[in-house]
User: Which sequence fits this backbone?
């Protein structure tokens, strides 16, 4: 899902499309962000290739070879078909994972006996008040955490028998075979795993590459199993508390769990105030995770979706790249700088510090001539800190640095309403409501013919806590 901001930032007659202003802020969230667990170092549990067993309690679910995936029109009935050996009414019972188990309707435990493995041995007939039943694993008792379940069971958001048939509830069920514990890295999607290898969670709650968990109020990272997690109540008071990614403003507030690089991923605002991020580490066993600064959005040569390890994809057509929230340049890597971007959402315009494209020498420049000698462009960078409400900057300043042109960007003098300029951040809105790409200048000698070197407001006085605006000089057409 991509969250788009299309509002041009204007300051009087001239406006600068700065950072993410009038650009796209992307949230690569093909997984729901739930949480992480575990304070101990990650274990090296083996990945597994699930064989679809035709029998009671046999595995079933996503099957890329048969195009049985959540996006297909016949999901989840295609998963039910994997259980056809049990009869026409057999079901693939899917809880919170892309994999489940085969089951059938029943009236007594004798109809739920299976001998394929220990998981199947725990199957029993769970019925409602009308005597309708289904073969399900484990005690099926309600739970608030793993600690309230019998040995060998996990607190799952799973399917159990209700008055209307199978219903999703929070109950104790037999732990998934070879599943890793809460807080460990996981992946239940074979499309993102080498050779179809998947790593499942014992409780089936693989969320954003981490095994989350149902938890009780007051549970800390030691229960959740990961220093980047804590137990949080969701906005819906009727929903369960889960181990959820801790809030952050930069990666320095996160832990490199298992020596993996930690990222601070921006989240969509749910109300006014500063944008907060959430800590995450990438699953090293998952394919398709791209480092900071790499291209994202679209497909790789092999047809796989480009995904950011930080799960934060930003930019403007035709160039999008992986980013992260940051506090300083060291949070970003050598080809990026930690700069301030402006973008708009339902709650108004606000600021965000994030890693911005800056591939190249990053030498300071006050005109475009110095950069051109090395084939680079002179691009503006806005520095400073964001206020608590996210609406103003503190100690803001503007710099211009040399960097390589944006791949496929628009040249100086061309319209940039829908495309990024060769120099990022150099899209200026003119009085005629047309935005054009321009360049930083020191005087008119730095500009093309029929242009003048003028001050452009990058930051308005009302957006700076000291009450003074921030400007840079840009080449502006005379008419």
Assistant:
């Amino acid at each position: 899902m991509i969250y788009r901001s299309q509002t041009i930032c204007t300051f009087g007659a001239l406006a600068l499309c700065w950072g993410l202003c009038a650009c796209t802020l992307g949230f690569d969230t093909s997984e729901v962000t739930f949480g992480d667990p575990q304070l101990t170092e990650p274990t090296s549990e083996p990945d597994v290739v699930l064989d679809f067993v035709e029998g009671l309690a046999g595995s079933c679910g996503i099957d890329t070879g048969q195009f049985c995936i959540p996006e297909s029109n016949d999901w989840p009935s295609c998963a039910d078909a994997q259980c056809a050996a049990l009869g026409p009414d057999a079901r693939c019972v899917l809880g919170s994972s892309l994999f489940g188990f085969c089951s059938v309707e029943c009236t007594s435990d004798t109809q739920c006996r299976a001998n394929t493995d220990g998981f199947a041995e725990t199957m029993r007939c769970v019925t409602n008040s009308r005597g309708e039943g289904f073969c399900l694993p484990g005690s099926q008792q309600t739970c608030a955490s793993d600690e309230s379940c019998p040995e060998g069971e996990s607190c799952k958001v799973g399917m159990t028998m209700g008055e209307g048939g199978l219903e999703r509830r929070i109950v104790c069920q037999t732990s998934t075979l070879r599943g890793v514990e809460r807080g460990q890295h996981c992946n239940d999607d074979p499309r993102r795993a080498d050779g179809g290898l998947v790593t499942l969670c014992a409780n089936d709650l693989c969320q954003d590459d981490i095994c989350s968990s149902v938890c009780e109020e007051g549970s800390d990272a030691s229960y959740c199993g990961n220093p980047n997690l804590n137990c949080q109540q969701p906005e819906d008071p009727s929903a369960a508390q889960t181990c959820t990614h801790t809030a952050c403003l930069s990666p320095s507030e996160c832990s490199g769990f298992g020596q993996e690089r930690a990222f601070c991923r921006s989240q969509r605002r749910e109300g006014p105030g500063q944008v907060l991020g959430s800590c995450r580490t990438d699953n090293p066993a998952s394919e398709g995770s791209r480092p900071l600064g790499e291209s994202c959005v679209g497909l790789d040569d092999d047809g796989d979706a480009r995904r950011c390890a930080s799960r934060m994809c930003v930019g403007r057509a035709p160039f999008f790249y992986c980013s992260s929230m940051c506090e300083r340049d060291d949070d970003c890597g050598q080809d990026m700088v930690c700069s301030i971007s402006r973008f708009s959402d339902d709650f108004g315009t606000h600021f965000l510090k994030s890693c911005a494209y800056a591939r190249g020498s990053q030498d300071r420049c006050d005109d475009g001539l110095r950069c051109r000698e090395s084939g680079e462009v002179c691009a503006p960078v806005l520095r400073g800190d964001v206020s608590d409400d996210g609406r103003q900057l503190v100690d803001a300043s503007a710099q211009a640095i040399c960097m390589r042109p944006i791949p496929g960007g628009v040249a100086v003098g061309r319209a940039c309403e829908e495309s990024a300029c060769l120099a990022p951040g150099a899209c200026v809105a003119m009085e005629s409501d047309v935005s054009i790409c321009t360049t930083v200048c020191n005087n008119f000698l730095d500009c093309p013919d029929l242009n003048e070197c003028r001050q452009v407001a990058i930051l308005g006085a009302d957006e700076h806590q000291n009450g003074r605006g921030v400007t840079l000089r840009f080449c502006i057409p005379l008419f």
User: Anything to note?
Assistant: Residues 146 and 155 are 5 Å apart (CA to CA). Residues 1-53 have pLDDT under 50 and may be disordered. The radius of gyration is 27 Å. The helical segments are 77-81, 118-121, 221-224, 369-372.
